[in-house]
Amino acid sequence: MAIKLYGYPKSTCTRLVALVCKEKNIDLELITVDLSKGEQKLPGFVAKQPFGQVPYMVDEDGFVLYESRAIARYLIRKYPNQGTQGLIPTDPKEEALFEQAASTEAFNFNPYVALIIVEKVFKKFRGIEANEALVKERLDGLNAKLDAYDVILGKQKYLAGNNVTLADLQHLPYGTMLAYAAGMPEVFTSRPNVARWWNDLYSRPAWQHILKTYN
Fold first, then answer.
1. Dihedral Cα 16, 86, 97, 192, nearest 10 deg
2. Residue 132: domain span
3. Of 30, 127, 160, 177, which residue is most buried, by most CB within 10 angstroms?
4. Residue 125 has what pLDDT?
5. Transferase as a keyword (predicted)?
């Protein structure tokens, strides 16, 4: 049996869960929720995900979970010896460094990139003009954060040390949209250590599989 993921293929959060499943060799059945029709707001969906957002997961035993980061952590911990190892370390110090890196992504990367994507990608899709002043403000903030990333990554291969973790993988869905859909690859390529790290992540076979199949 496979876990069931109720989501939208191009959704960044749906793609994060799918990426973890691919890294961990977990069978996944994607049940597409049509956001353009508002299916995520229908009573049957909201009964499982009260905020009306994708995705949510139903495990083989019927266990229901929403929020992509929570789903990713659950699956990694449920299948520790399957697929890519160490995505969440178990050694106390290594786990603390992972949590530090995960917080770095959540508070020093995601808020900046998410708003830029709203302005440069989602508004464009709807035919709405972007607020370029707001984009510049957030881009300036992101650049300052990535300068710090470059220092960190000059000392180690990944954000939590020399092994890839979920904290690194969490950058891929929004980072890819920033680089390609929003047309800002220089955010990554202009810094040598960030560029090396980003290219390493982006070229992972699991992520390339997601890009080819979740569109």
1. -70
2. 92-214
3. 160
4. 86
5. yes
Structural domain contains residue 85: no
| Two tokens, residue 4 | 């069931």
Q: Do 48 and 111 belong together in one domain?
A: no
Report the number of distinct structural domains present in the chain: 2
> Looking at 44, 79, 114, which one is the last position of a domain?
79
Residue 79: CA atoms inside 13 Å, Cβ hemisphere, count? 17
Same domain, 102 and 47: no
Strands 28-32 and 3-7: parallel
pLDDT tier for residue 93 given thresholds of 50, 70 and 90: very high
Q: Say if residue 71 is in the same domain as residue 99.
A: no
- 16-61 per-position pLDDT tens digit: 999 999 999 999 999 999 999 999 999 999 999 999 999 999 999 9
DSSP per-residue codes, 30-75: EEE--GGGTGGGSHHHHTTSTT--S-EEE-TTS-EEESHHHHHHHH
